[in-house]
Write a structure and sequence with these properties.
Elements (H helix, E strand, L loop, with lengths): L1 H23 L1 H18 L3 H13 L7 H12 L7 H16 L6 H71 L1
Helix pairs in contact: 2-3, 3-4, 4-5, 5-6
Length: 179
């Protein structure tokens, strides 16, 4: 029984020591302050400055709970309006890094969902571009066919007129032969 209590207390002290070490680590505290600064800059709509702070966080030593959140926020800020793949490319890279470097991150599920949406968006944009090219090609074909149809209609009319003339000439010849 005593041995069981001793193991329990040792485990509790060990685990609380890990949390205390991280909380008292000056580098961790510095990174946490930088993340708070970035969040404040985002709230104040100072996006370029926030991107700069978040970028520095992602380039420094990996800090669990800080760097992964910085990557996720950076991905959100890297989304750009537009329909080209470049609009989602940098955000996708940030999310890929988060997913590969931080498999147990609390941001993983959000990152995976957002990455899936970005991939689907890129695919939809590519499909739409492909469809637009097909539509353009079909319109060109339609114009060409319409032009050919008009040309054939004119030729057809000329041929009918020629046939009518031939009939008339044939009738005239027959009437002249009978006379």
């Amino acid at each position: 029984m005593r041995k069981h209590h001793l193991i329990t207390w040792a485990t509790v002290l060990f685990l609380s020591g890990c949390a205390t070490i991280q909380q008292s680590d000056p580098f961790y505290q510095q990174q946490k302050k930088k993340l708070a600064l970035a969040q404040m800059l985002i709230e104040e709509n100072k996006i370029p400055a926030a991107k700069e702070v978040l970028s520095s966080l992602t380039k420094e030593a990996k800090t669990k709970g800080i760097t992964d959140e910085a990557l996720f926020r950076m991905a959100l800020l890297d989304l750009e309006p537009g329909e080209q793949k470049i609009a989602t490319g940098k955000a996708g890279q940030d999310l890929d890094k988060l997913l590969s470097d931080y498999p147990k991150s609390q941001w993983r599920t959000h990152a995976a969902a957002l990455k899936g949406l970005l991939d689907y968006y890129d695919l939809a944009v590519e499909e739409r571009n492909s469809l637009e090219q097909s539509i353009k090609s079909l319109r060109n074909s339609y114009s060409s066919l319409k032009s050919m149809n008009l040309s054939l209609a004119r030729e057809n009319k000329e041929l009918r007129q020629g046939i009518e003339k031939l009939k008339n000439l044939d009738l005239e010849l027959e009437t002249k032969k009978k006379k």
